[in-house]
Amino acid sequence: AVLQQRAFLERLAGRPERAVPIEEAAEKVPLRGSRDRLLLAMAYLEQEEPARALPLLEEVLQSEPRDAVAWFVRGVCQNDLNEPARAEASLTASLALRPDNPWAHHFRGISHLSRGEWALAEQECDAALQGQASFLPALVNRALARFQGGNPTAALDDLDHAITQPDAPTRLYFLRAQVRDQAGDPEGAQRDREQGLRRQPNDEASYVARGVALLADNPDAALADFEAALQMNPASRDALQNKAHVLSERLHNPRAGVVVLDRAITIHPRHAPLWAGRAVLQARLGERSEAIAGITTALELGASPEIGYQAACVWAQTSRVQSDDRRMALDHLTAALQAGYGHDLLHSDPDLDPLGIDPEFQRLRDQFGAKPSSGG
Q: How far is it, in rounded angstroms, from Cα 70 to Cα 94?
C-alpha cells in the first residue's frame, strides 16, 4: 500500500515515468494477510480506483467475514462503481457488525439516492444524524432527498442548517438556489446564486461548483476556478474534466483540452470517461489512430451507454477521412440509443454531422430523436 501511494504521488507530480517502476515493484510485494489487503484496497479507493479495490476486499471478507471496516469500504467502492444494490447490501452487513457508524448510514443513503429512492435515502440520513444533528454530509444528502422527493420546504430547512456550520462549503448556496426555484422563490434563488458567486470557495468541490455556474457567461473566470480547485487537489477528476471542457468547448482550444486530459489520464489511467473525452477531441483534430486507440481503451474500461455514444462521435468524426468508420459509428450509436442514451442529442450534436446524409442515421433520428423546437 505504501508503494502504491508513493507511485500515485509521482503521478500527481507529473512524473509517470517514475511511477511505473514503483507500481511494478508494488505488484511484486507479497500481501501478508487481511490487513495488507485492506490497506491496499483503501489506497486504491483513495486514488479513485474502486474497481481495483474490490477483489482485495473480497479476499479479506473470505477470511474475515466479520470485518465491519472491509464491508464498509466494499460498500463505498460499489457506490462509486454505480452498483447501489450491492453497496446497500455491503453497508447493511457493516452496520450489523458495527451499528454505531454514522458514515455507513450516510453511504447507504447515497445508494438510495442513486436509485431515486428518496424516502429511503431520507431515512438513512435521519439515522446518520441521530446524536449528531450537525453531521454536514448527512444534512446535505437529506436536503437532496427531500428536494428530489418533492419537499423543497423541508430541504430548505436542512440547507439553512447546513449553511450555518463553520465548515459549510460555499457550493451549498448554488444547491439552495435550485431548491428555492422549486419552492417558488426566484428572488431568494437569485440571492443565493449571487452569494455563491461572491463568496470565496472553501474547498475543491465549491471551486468546481462556482466554475460551472460561471461557465455560460464568463468562461475565463470559470477556468480560473477550475485551476484553483486543482491547486487544492491536483488529482481532482471533476476539475480536470471541467477545465478540459471549458478550454475545448467554450474557449475553442481543443488542443489545450487534450493536454489537460493527458494529465488526467496520467493520474487516473483506469477512468473510462477521461479516455473517451480525449478521444473525441483527438477525432475532431483529425488524429484518427490516436482517437481510435483511446476510445477502444475507454470501451474496454467501461462500456456504458454514454461511452458508447462517445464512441459513435469518434468514429463519425474519423469517417471524414476513412469512410469505413461510418459503420462503426452507426453501430455504437444504435446501441447507445437502444440503451436510452443520446435521444436528446441526435438533432444538435455537431460530432455526428458526418453521418447526416446516411439513410440509417436519418432512420435513427426519426426513431429515437427528440425533435428540435421550431421556436427562436
A: 8
Average pLDDT of each block of 10 consecutive residues along the chain (376 residues)? 87 84 89 91 86 93 96 94 90 96 96 93 96 90 96 95 92 95 94 95 94 95 96 89 97 97 88 94 97 96 89 97 94 94 92 92 87 39
d(CA 179, CA 71): 34
Report the alpha-carbon distance of residue 51 to residue 72 in Å, rounded.
15
Identity at 265, one-letter amino acid code = I
Angle between helix 254-267 and 272-284 (nearest 10) = 160
CA angle 218, 223, 226 (to 5 degrees): 130
Angle between helices 204-214 and 186-198 (to 10 degrees): 120
DSSP assignment of 34-52 equals HHHHHHHHHHHHHTT-HHH
CA–centroid distance for 166 within its chain: 27
What are the b/e assignments for 272-302, b being 16+ CB within 10 Å? bbbbbbbbbbbbbbebbebbbebbebbbebb
Let me know if 173 is exposed, middle or buried by CB neighbors in 10 A (0-12, 13-18, 19+): buried
| Distance from C-alpha of 37 to C-alpha of 223, rounded to nearest angstrom | 39
Position of cell 428536494? 147
Whole-number Å distance between alpha carbons of 85 and 116: 12
Closest among 49, 47, 52, 53 to 12, alpha carbons compared = 47
Q: Locate cell 452507426: which residue? A: 330
